[in-house]
From TrEMBL:
<keyword id="KW-0004">4Fe-4S</keyword>
<dbReference type="InterPro" id="IPR050293">
    <property type="entry name" value="LIPOR_BchN/ChlN"/>
</dbReference>
<keyword id="KW-0067">ATP-binding</keyword>
<feature type="binding site">
    <location>
        <position position="51"/>
    </location>
    <ligand>
        <name>[4Fe-4S] cluster</name>
    </ligand>
</feature>
<keyword id="KW-0547">Nucleotide-binding</keyword>
<keyword id="KW-0408">Iron</keyword>
<keyword id="KW-0411">Iron-sulfur</keyword>
<comment type="pathway">
    <text>Porphyrin-containing compound metabolism; chlorophyll biosynthesis (light-independent).</text>
</comment>
<keyword id="KW-0602">Photosynthesis</keyword>
<protein>
    <recommendedName>
        <fullName>Light-independent protochlorophyllide reductase subunit N</fullName>
        <ecNumber>1.3.7.7</ecNumber>
    </recommendedName>
</protein>
<feature type="binding site">
    <location>
        <position position="112"/>
    </location>
    <ligand>
        <name>[4Fe-4S] cluster</name>
    </ligand>
</feature>
<dbReference type="GO" id="GO:0016491">
    <property type="term" value="F:oxidoreductase activity"/>
</dbReference>
<keyword id="KW-0149">Chlorophyll biosynthesis</keyword>
<feature type="domain" description="Nitrogenase/oxidoreductase component 1">
    <location>
        <begin position="32"/>
        <end position="410"/>
    </location>
</feature>
<comment type="function">
    <text>Component of the dark-operative protochlorophyllide reductase (DPOR) that uses Mg-ATP and reduced ferredoxin to reduce ring D of protochlorophyllide (Pchlide) to form chlorophyllide a (Chlide). This reaction is light-independent. The NB-protein (ChlN-ChlB) is the catalytic component of the complex.</text>
</comment>
<keyword id="KW-0479">Metal-binding</keyword>
<feature type="binding site">
    <location>
        <position position="26"/>
    </location>
    <ligand>
        <name>[4Fe-4S] cluster</name>
    </ligand>
</feature>
Length: 422
């Protein structure tokens, strides 16, 4: 007897598609959580001083610190084609590795400036791999924000690692997407108690400890913005499990139920393990639900996490969804969460920021989930906001974190209520 999970229904057809001026964060931002995940890796951005300042600001790293990322700055001569950027890049990499011998994987990260001048980082990585054979692996991917949203930086980084994954047909569960170490440890413990003993992660905690992939691999996505990685894993023979994302109690339980069904875990065992976690998570939600229930929420497109977050906030916190926007809608990856949204939910894909702001002002929602560039202007107009990027940096996955996730949305409403009273 299998574990119960909601059936997947066709996604709603009424989607407003927009194309125009966008307000997005740069894909280089993904380095901030990836470099914490893999301490033996280094991310070298090939870009401008603006790129360097962005990453320093996003990471909150002091200028005298030496984190596991840096910028090979393209100067005016590089941008004008008057200098050999490849020669300079080789010199910088050599100096870096002499100073940081612990590096095992070096990512060359493309930026808007490097892509504009057509600097071929794939060839640079190939050349450096030949020079540094046996010393370090050099990979490359694009973190440019020209055509992407900021979370796609992780998708591109994982895609760059995929050719290095060994092939194996053993049965395993592969959790894909960066998680906080404590959250991942908790998930592994739960799966172990369910009897799923071979559980691996991508990205791994060590960049050289790459998981195998093959016909016995069942992929469970922990993050909803990994479309290219998911399809590449399927191409390698893995099976992609369709589940809601593990945000909130319901989503986390159904996420685990999907894995349990795939590995034949008996319903009695599943319920014995999950029921106490579900009950504890629901109790943690209650004080925040009192603040959020009945409040109107507008989700602007920014991170691709909007649809599963909307599902959580409407079903478990009682919020009313005015509009749910997403930069890109991958129907396959979002099928389970789309099926759990209220039937009349207004969805939008893409962005025309002026038109969307007009709808926000007309609706006057209680709370808007949006990027950093829109938060302050909306706050100045008296509309409470929540930064979408904060959700990527925070440990929000799993039943145990449901209360913390709800609190992130309740906090700006509580703050506004206090300010109005004062």
């Amino acid at each position: 007897m299998g574990v119960s999970a909601p059936p997947i229904q066709p996604s709603p057809p009424d989607i407003l598609k927009e194309s125009g001026q966008r307000e997005v964060f740069c894909g280089l931002t993904s380095i901030v959580w990836l470099h914490r995940r893999m301490p033996d890796a280094f991310f070298l951005v090939v870009g401008s001083r603006t790129c360097a300042h962005l990453i320093q600001s996003a990471a909150g790293v002091m200028i005298f610190a030496e984190p596991r990322f840096g910028t090979a700055i393209l100067g005016e001569r590089d941008l004008a084609g008057l200098a050999d950027a490849n020669e300079e890049l080789d010199r910088l990499v050599k100096d870096l590795l002499e100073r940081r011998p612990e590096i095992r994987t070096l990512f060359l990260v493309g930026s808007c400036p490097s892509e504009v001048i057509k600097l071929d980082l794939a060839k640079a990585a190939e050349r450096l791999n030949t020079q540094l054979l046996g010393r370090v692996r050099v990979l490359n991917y694009s973190g440019s924000g020209i055509e992407t949203t900021f979370t796609q930086g992780e998708d591109n980084a994982l895609l760059a690692m995929l050719p290095l994954l060994p092939s194996a047909d053993e049965e395993q569960l592969l959790i894909v997407g960066t998680l906080a170490d404590a959250v991942e440890d908790r998930f592994r413990l739960i799966f172990e108690r369910l009897g799923i003993t071979t559980v691996r992660s991508l990205p791994p905690r060590r960049s050289t400890d790459l998981p195998p992939v093959g016909k016995g691999t069942r992929v469970l996505l922990a993050q909803p913005f990994l479309s290219a990685t998911a399809r590449a894993l399927q191409h390698r023979g893995a099976t992609l499990l369709s589940a809601p994302y593990p945000f909130g109690v319901e989503g986390s339980r159904d996420w685990m139920a999907t894995a349990a069904n795939a590995f034949g875990v008996p319903a009695e065992r599943f319920n014995a393990v999950l029921d106490p976690l579900v009950e504890r998570g629901r109790r943690a939600l209650e004080p925040h639900r009192e603040v959020l229930a009945g409040k109107r929420l507008f989700l602007l497109p920014d991170s691709q996490m909007e649809i599963p977050l909307a599902r959580f906030l409407s079903r478990e916190c009682g919020m009313e969804l005015v509009e749910v926007g997403t930069p890109y809608l991958d129907r396959q990856l979002m099928a389970a969460d789309l099926a759990l949204l209220p039937p009349a939910t207004q969805l939008s894909e893409g962005q025309d920021v002026d038109l969307q702001l007009e709808r926000v002002r007309a609706a006057r929602p209680d709370l808007v989930l949006c990027g950093l560039g829109l938060a302050n202007p909306l706050e100045a107009e008296g509309i409470a906001t929540k930064w979408s990027i904060e959700l990527v940096f925070s440990p929000i996955h799993g039943c145990d974190q449901a209360g913390e996730l709800a609190e992130l949305f309740a906090r700006p409403l509580r703050r506004r209520a206090v300010l109005q009273l004062s």
